[in-house]
């Protein structure tokens, strides 16, 4: 097996795994499991499915991500970024459609990993990732306002944000103070613990405290038990998702969106872990593992799986040394489910909404947004367009348009970096008469720069005996740039001008050779000195 498709678990055991590392991984896995327990249920409920499906996702998907993945510290499970997509898929195609889309996304991720596409996915510009993450955070928070305030929507809560706002305003007369108190208590406890005891499991403590308070005070708030009847005490039996050609075609756009977002989120999370530990992940194996985890999650009734940045960072900070910590995190969650499932019925939905409100606030990278606004108006535009499209249109559309806009800005920047200068005044070659003209090309000579370069090169005056194209400063040459150079060379040869191309890069010669230029049309030299030698009648 090639190294880029070798799970990190195999590498860890090849290095040697002892009891001390197992103890460190067990403590880290327990820490992450305590964080993941309430979060997995909250994300599932916000996604329009039952809380047990979030736990299935964290247990099955989380285990496979760690056992088979290309990162030593990655923690997989349900992610807040998927809430919008999952909820939309459930509303359109039901649970069967969601499970099928999740499995199809898994197959796409496996294919992406086997094709080594992970390195390309990581090229998504930073302003785009900041913009779509902030957009998702706004949508998640908006989706929780109903539970935070105890509102009821007679016709169901609308999905799109632009429809949700007037629905929330109309439902405000039904505001529930007990629900707001429970949500506020949860948020306050999380923030206080984070401020004064950051190593404590603030999410779990807040949910337990709010649940006890609501139960002891008999507060009239919705709970997991009143809405879902509790959660089962174990995993569901595995079964294949319902498959039909019509349903597969219907959910294909959702599966593509799941795969795209899953790849982006998981590789970003792996990069964060690399930055914290100094290690390097294997992106191809990570995508394959994410694919297998999504298929496994769908088989057990779970939702989309991806690498989760917050839980992965928690894993690193807790002292994890290998993927074993992530595998143990999944097993600890299963143990919690087996032992404490009846207690989950007492958890208020407002408390879980408070958890997600804090999560959405943390998702907005305020310092990064501030830095972008101060440093670059162009990248601020990319961020703003991505953010607004994610909120008011669609997540996938926001990413595609944001990347396209960033690519256009990059092309414009690179095109401006190309310089074509006439060296006649500087006369870099000694003892060369006025019948020789020299042009130097510096920078990236590609399709975006062809127009500006053509405007200069087309003005080469007639009457010269020799034309020297000094391409030694070209950093990049594509077929568009090579085609323009070939046109200049042909025009010069028709006018009886001898052409010398200076470059020591084989790709320059190779690209020009593909444009039907004959040996008598062009003389290649590695340096200007060699060109001078040839112009003076010497053979190279």
Automatic annotation (TrEMBL):
Where the record annotates domain STAS, the positions are 435-535
Give compartment(s): Membrane
Q: Which UniProt keywords apply?
A: Membrane, Transmembrane, Transmembrane helix
* Superkingdom of this protein's organism: Bacteria
For this protein, the record's InterPro entries field holds:
SLC26A/SulP_dom (IPR011547), SLC26A/SulP_fam (IPR001902), STAS_dom (IPR002645), STAS_dom_sf (IPR036513)
Membrane-crossing segments per the record: 26-47, 53-70, 97-117, 124-145, 165-191, 203-226, 246-271, 292-310, 330-359, 380-411
- Membrane topology field: Multi-pass membrane protein
PROSITE patterns according to UniProt: STAS
Q: Which SUPFAM superfamilies match?
A: SpoIIaa-like
UniProt-recorded name of the protein: Sodium-independent anion transporter
Organism expressing this protein natively:
Rhizobium wuzhouense
